[in-house]
Amino acid sequence: MSVKIVADSSCDLNEDLRVLGINLVPLSLEIGSKVYRDDESLDVKAMLKEMAACPTPPRTACPSPNDFLKAYEGKDSVFAVTLSSSLSGTYESAMLAKKMFLEKAEDKFIHVFDSFSASIAETLISIKIFELAKKKCDDLQIVEKVNEYVKSMKTFFLLESLDNLIKNGRMSRVKGGIATLLNIKPVMGATDDGHIKLVESVRGYKRAFARFVEIIGEQGDKLEDKVIGIAHVNCLERAEEFKSELLKRYKFKDIIIVEAAGLSSVYANQGGIIVAF
Questions:
Q1: Per-residue pLDDT tens digits for 136-194
Q2: Are 90 and 97 in contact (CB under 8 A)?
Q3: Residue 111: helix, strand or coil by DSSP?
Q4: Is 134 helix (H, G, I), strand (E, B) or coil?
Q5: Residues 202 and 189 both lie in one domain
Q6: Does residue 184 share a domain with residue 137?
Q7: Could you give the number of structural domains in the chain?
Q8: Would you state the torsion angle of the CA atoms of residues 108, 109, 110, 116, taken in this order, to the nearest 10 degrees?
Q9: Residue 203 and residue 195: Cα distance in Å, rounded?
Q10: Contact yes or no for 113/219 (Cβ under 8 A)
Q11: What's the pTM?
Q12: Residue 32, phi-psi category: left (phi > 0), alpha (psi -120 to 50), beta (remainder)
């Protein structure tokens, strides 16, 4: 069965995964007075430097319905994967585009998945769609199985920098200053409905890193049947070290490492690690 997989640009990919043909619809990123398109032309490293130097918080804008309309074109069944609807209007844009498209092409199959997460979680969902299509599952079977997969997924991330949390007002400057002074590193996670929650605060990055590895084992089950994805924000060595620690403790079906693109880098910031499984 021929399908088209569409995802917003929070779906982080590496060169191996690009062969899956996932169609990315970019968000816009605003750093100070500059607006960037989150596509392959974006220099993430340069953006991170500008973001660190900018006194105002970075802002993001979801793709328009027209952006998704273009991505939906063609005769293939379309499966779209978006950022959590609790974090972005991207899901609503994708759904509106679906409605607009079906008004003119009623026989077209389009389904939009709310990832209830971001970054590497969207990547894993897209891979699952590809695998099910390759097994000749029909459209409704793919929807059913992917919905089950999304419900079972867990997402966590470890932050190196608190700058964006402070700039965005999610952490007061006083608390943020104290946390920075005490070298507090937060381990964050996604709730079942796609919001962000604080899982633990740990003093010192080494301790936080070790605790991050432990949390994977505490929160996961039947890991031998699961693929875990690791997205890193300009810190490949850290991601490789994290993979090495996972291999020492757990038996995952596979471990995938990708470099975070623009949107994920804005959320997790320099040195951040995002995992989903």
A1: 999 999 999 999 999 999 999 998 876 766 676 555 665 656 556 667 888 889 999 99
A2: no
A3: strand
A4: helix
A5: yes
A6: no
A7: 2
A8: 170
A9: 24
A10: no
A11: 0.94
A12: left
